[in-house]
Amino acid sequence: LPVAVHIQTSRALMVISLLLGFFGIIVSVVGMKCTKVGEEDPVTKSRIAVAGGVLFVLSGLCTLAAVSLYATQVTYEFFRESTVPINARYEFGSALFIGSLLCCSCPAKERRGQQYYRQSQPSTAREYV
C-alpha cells in the first residue's frame, strides 16, 4: 500500500478515537451516581456508566491501532534497503540511555538551594548540616 493510504487510515482511526472518547465522556457523565440526568434507577445508571467505559476502551483500541499502523509503516520504510543507505541508519539506544540518566539526575526546582536540618534536636534553634 502507498504511504498516503497508511497516513489516511491512521488519521481516520484517530478521528474515530476522538469521537468515541467524546461520546464516552458524555455517556459516563450521564451514568454517574452523582448526576440527576437520565434515569434515577441505580442499575440503569451503572449500565450507562459501563457503556461509557466501553466507549473509552474502544477509543483506546482505535488509538492503539492507528499508532501501531503508522509505526509499522515507518519501521518498514526505514529498514527497506532501497530507501535509506545502510550507513545512514543509526542506533539510538545508548544515546537514549545516557539522556534518560541525565534527566533523572537533575534535582527538582523546589530542592535546589534547600537547607537541610538535623531533626535530632527538638529545640527551635536548629543547626545547618
Report on this structure.
This protein is an all-alpha fold. It has a domain at 2-83. Helices cover 62% and strands 0% of the residues. It is built from three helices and no strands. It has helices at residues 3-31, 42-79, 93-105. It starts with a helix and ends in a 24-residue tail after the last helix. The model has no long low-confidence stretch (mean pLDDT 79). It is a multi-pass membrane protein. One of its GO terms (cellular component) is bicellular tight junction. Belongs to the claudin family. It is found in: Cell junction, Tight junction; Cell membrane. The chain crosses the membrane at residues 12-32, 48-70.
- How helix-rich are the residues, as a percent range? 55-70%
Number of strands: 0
Secondary-structure-derived class: mainly alpha
**Number of helical runs?**
3
**Cα gyration radius (Å):** 26 Å
Mean pLDDT: 79
For the biggest sheet, the summary is: none
User: Uncertain segments of ≥5 residues (pLDDT<50)?
Assistant: none
Q: Report how far apart the termini are.
A: 66 Å
Would you list the SSEs in sequence order as H and E? HHH
Percentage of residues in strands:
under 5%
Shape: flat
Oligomer: single chain
Subcellular location: Cell junction, Tight junction; Cell membrane
Membrane topology: Multi-pass membrane protein
Family: Belongs to the claudin family.
GO molecular function: structural molecule activity
